[in-house]
Amino acid sequence: MDNKKVKELKVSAIENGTVIDHIPSNAVFKVIRILKLEAFENMVLFATNLESKKYGKKGIVKVSNKFFAPEELNKIALVAPLASVIEIRDFQVRSKTIVEIPDKIKGIVKCFNPNCVTNKEEVSAIFVVADKETIRLKCHYCEKITTRETMEFR
Amino acid sequence: MKNKSLVSINDYTKDEQLRILDLAEKFEKKPVQTILKDHVIASLFFEPSTRTRLSFESAVNRLGGKIVGFSEASNTSIKKGESLRDTILTVANYSDLIIMRNPIEGSARFASELSHVPIINAGDGANQHPTQTLLDLYSIKKTQGTLDNLHIAMVGDLKYGRTIHSLVIALCNFNTTFHLVSPVELKLPSSVKMHIKENKLAYHQYTEMDEVLPKADILYMTRIQQERFSDPLEYERIKNVYNLHHDMILNTKDNFRVLHPLPRVSEININVDKSPKAYYFEQALNGVFVRQALITSILGIA
Ligand SMILES: [Zn+2]
Q: CATH classification of B9-128+287-298 is 3.50.50.60, yes or no?
């Protein structure tokens, strides 16, 4: 734990806010997009390709002065299933949680089926998560399965 | 079932499906009535499907209902770029129920969420065509006297045939034993087989029909389309293997019947048509009674 804290300091510590750790390196930008941090006005720090004993390479995102609702954070489980979320207040770790894949996903993932109504009309795709382990998303409209391999984000 | 759209066969419970079949039997005895005389039914065919459209329109007409709509999208505002959303919202104001066929998958679910009148899905691309499933169940029940504990053989393109997928899922409620006959490249998808397994039912897979015929109560034939094969020679070979002749059904059970969603190509030789075991034309007619039952149930008048 202490060791890790030091590493976090390398990326620069935040006083208040949320640290999302253990993101696969290639998913950092996706996490930023899913959490709509591109439009966020406070400080956002991120790093990719950090050495991690457990995961080889990892990424991390730190968002100052922002605490997320669990539903919001759980959306990132699609790209970062092992991510841990640390809430920091006054430079102290207040809570640490692990993201969980939600049962239903709305608006963030595109249906892979080009002939699906969600790719033709003004309507967001809604998915029921048919399998959390392998990530199989069943489209509420066309009933086809979008997988990790065919998943694209809006 | 009043006001309950039918988009996918799973939208109706087993009991609701059985209720439609019972009601269809009453309409078969008395198909001409006037109970729809105060109703306007919209029939929106965004792609042509003469067979399905005529069946629906005949069902409505024989009950005295009025039909508004179109049989293809080319002469309408859709061609001018109107969204499905706007078309549905407009038509919902002019009708009590909307029958829709549309090549876009998921369009029927989308329409059912927008419209304040119920929707019957008459086919949304490769996705669902639930009235076909209901008429198949009706035909099986009528020829066998029951839906329970039957041996049902399905032959042809089991991979892409949505008719087959929906029928398998519906039959899982009735302790069916499935005999699945298809070329290796066109086997039933594992997601549908999973459904059979989850219901603890048995299925057997074959590449040729011969072995199955004496065991089957129902032989459900489907078309094999040429475009599924990259090699035209392979298609020719398969076409000859999946061809039912009159001689082949001589040693079948007395209750054995041949079904087919039609149109057929070469998979059933016309010499089968004269056999009392050929049931595919009656099957198509049953579609009218089933659709009468469905429409009147949804409108709450039957
Ligand atoms: Zn879809």
A: no
